[in-house]
Design brief:
Helix content of chain B: under 10%
Strand content of chain B: over 45%
Number of helices of chain B: 0
Order of helices and strands of chain A: EEEEEEEEEEE
Oligomer: heterodimer
Number of strands of chain A: 11
Distance between the termini of chain A: 37 Å
Radius of gyration of chain B: 13 Å
Shape of chain A: globular
Largest interface: A-B, 24 and 26 residues
Radius of gyration of chain A: 13 Å
Chain lengths: ~110, ~110
């Protein structure tokens, strides 16, 4: 079983839609969590950190549920430019980042 | 741009050959991590260097080795290349070892092994 699991998608949504991605992690020692965005053939870039109290940045909201070992990302009012792969990432005390396989999002006009 | 650079951008090798990939970290960053990203997968941690010392290693065989220089740039060496080594190799730099320190990724080196 992978340490971080995500639905690979693709999620195909119209502009303006709200879309939610979920992710589960198996290592209870994981302490920090992030969502990264990766465009086709580009490097991953940090989208946002994830906290138990929830974290909102504009149209993006991330949530962590430690009891269920579950992480979510909500994107409101989707834009064409949101089309990308979203990587769920955990990190334990060893500082290495543990990536999920990514969820692909396609926003259509 | 993150300020992290990698060279070369693309590389084609044959099985059994050796390869060296290079990474220059963002100015002031003393930690470099290397990741392997196969097609359709998320990046997998190879190892990390902090102040020229290896600080953790993922599940990769010893033919994957590396080093970090006094200016904090880094090299990844892969010996006896196998077909499955074909992937995007990413390096990421950060300041220190705290988990909340953002890791900034370079554009990657795309390695093809024939």
């Amino acid at each position: 079983r992978k340490e971080v699991e995500q639905d690979p998608g693709p999620f195909n949504v119209p502009e303006g839609a709200t879309v939610a991605f979920n992710c589960t992690y198996s290592n209870s020692a994981s302490q920090s969590f992030f969502w990264y965005r990766q465009d086709c053939r580009k490097e991953p870039k940090l989208l946002m950190s994830v906290y138990s109290s929830g974290n909102e940045d504009g149209r993006f909201t991330a949530q962590l549920n430690r009891a269920s070992q579950y992480i979510s990302l909500l994107i409101r009012d989707s834009k064409l430019s949101d089309s990308a792969t979203y990587l769920c990432v955990g990190s334990d005390s060893s500082y290495k980042l543990i990536f999920g396989s990514g969820t692909r999002l396609l926003v259509r006009p | 741009e993150t300020g992290v650079t990698q060279s070369p951008t693309h590389l084609i090798k044959t099985r059994g050959q050796q390869v060296t990939l290079r990474c220059s970290s963002q100015s002031g960053h003393n930690t470099v991590s290397w990741y392997q990203q196969a097609l359709g997968q998320g990046p997998q941690f190879i190892f990390q260097y902090y102040r020229e010392e290896e600080n953790g290693r993922g599940n990769f065989p010893p033919r994957f080795s590396g080093l970090q220089f006094p200016n904090y740039s880094s090299e990844l060496n892969v010996n006896a290349l196998e077909l499955d080594d074909s992937a995007l190799y990413l390096c990421a730099s950060s300041l220190g070892l705290a988990q909340y320190n953002e890791q900034f990724f370079g554009p990657g080196t795309r390695l093809t092994v024939l």
